[in-house]
Amino acid sequence: MVEEICIIGGGAGGLISCKIAMDYGLTPVVLEKSSWLGGIWRNPNDEIGVWNSLSTNTSKYFTCFSDMPWPSATSPTPTNREVMDYFIAYARAHALIDNFLFNCKAIYVNKIHSGYLVRWQNVSSGQIFEKEFPYVIIANGFHAKELFPISNLCHLSKLKVLHSGKYRDPKPFIGQKVAVIGASTSACDIAEDLSSHAGEVIQIVREPHRLLPKYYQGIPIDFFIKSKSLERPLASLSPEEIGKEIDKGFVLLAGHPGHHNLVVPNEDHNSSFFSIVNNNYKKCLEENKIQIQKGKLRSLNESGLVLENGNEVEADAVIVCTGFEVDLTFLDEKILEIINYDGHDNVIPITGFLNTIHPDLPGLGFVGLFRGVFIGTYELQAELIIRHFKHLVAVSERALREGVGYELRLRRSTPKPQFIYYSLEFTERLMEVLNFQSSAATSDHQEIIKLRDILYLPQFYRLDKGESQFILCKQVIDELKERFSIDENTLINLFYQNKLN
């Protein structure tokens, strides 16, 4: 008997959910509102996407699925085109594409006695379809809807106003005075991108932020900020203590305290300050190619921006980099109430057990719907969802409800942190619940076991698969040795030497 599962969204979360559903004998039906897979990485001009010059601020060693390392020739921080090519290669390698319904937008999902009623519309023909599914995974991404600091901002002025989700290229802004609103990674990246063509770039920031390079001692920075030796000690600390440790680590990894206009005050160890990863942004600041204005946007006028402190900033164009909303308005109101949906919360818009399943919604799961989750952990979320559906993982009712309560407390915390989970904390909790155990390791595998005890590269997730997975791990480790001229002992020592505490 065919057992179907509906997956809403055809980006990275939808891809891996489709693959894992097939691993467990389910037949996926993936609803993707665009004409092709890839989510924001498709880079279409008329939809939310990434800009042309973007390269990832996480390395390819973490930005991957466990069963497919990147080609060794790919740079450590891939371009947007390379990310898209990787997703397409993954879909083809696992024969996923035939399960996709493109140009199909989910418009309603409701719980029924036998599972869930899903209704969708073909955006080309307008035709509406509906079907009952025993299981549904929501994986439509964290970048579904543009978030503006002021409603109707695009219609309040004759200025050219563009959200970062629609920004693609600096050429339309040649010689112009451009204001960039925000201090996120995308704001800093876009300000840097504009600085080569715009006549002047002014970045409006509300708070200081921490600036990290993409590489430390020639090694991708995420090998340190996602290292167990760095992150594990933070788990039991208060927000202020976490802030102090992050500040120490920031100075260590960045090699400088930051730009003078953005430095976090010594007495303010606030863990909610954003950390930005960028190689050239600091140089642009030092060369005055990007000017910083501190303040919060109040309004626009015919000549530019007005800040709440009364300062006015002249501009020809405005790029708004204030984030995105998760759009789950197609879910029935009762479901939205159960998951505590808040589309305006761009940190934790829903609550659940590890933001993945909810005790009151059997057969429904969520992948990639909080800030900070990355594609390596999408895979673990999808594994938890499918195994939970199939009764292959044991999570008590009490644990599920405690997980919901934990995320509700996180949502109410003041100040709210940049990320609700530290990446390895989240990974380790998922791994613990899934109870992935390594198969018997031989003496040939000791190098891999040592490294797994320090950090989780996605290839390390599934050592329970046996020798085939150890081969993939060795392939990645060999590349690290060759590319960065280090052996396993040097790599291990480097992690331990750079603990925060």
UniProtKB/TrEMBL annotation:
Belongs to the FMO family. It comes from the Eukaryota. PANTHER family: DIMETHYLANILINE MONOOXYGENASE. Signal peptide: none annotated. Keywords: FAD, Flavoprotein, NADP, Oxidoreductase. It holds the Pfam family FMO-like. This is Flavin-containing monooxygenase. One of its GO terms (molecular function) is flavin adenine dinucleotide binding. InterPro entries: FAD/NAD-bd_sf, Flavin_mOase, Flavin_mOase-like, FMO-like. The keyword NADP applies.
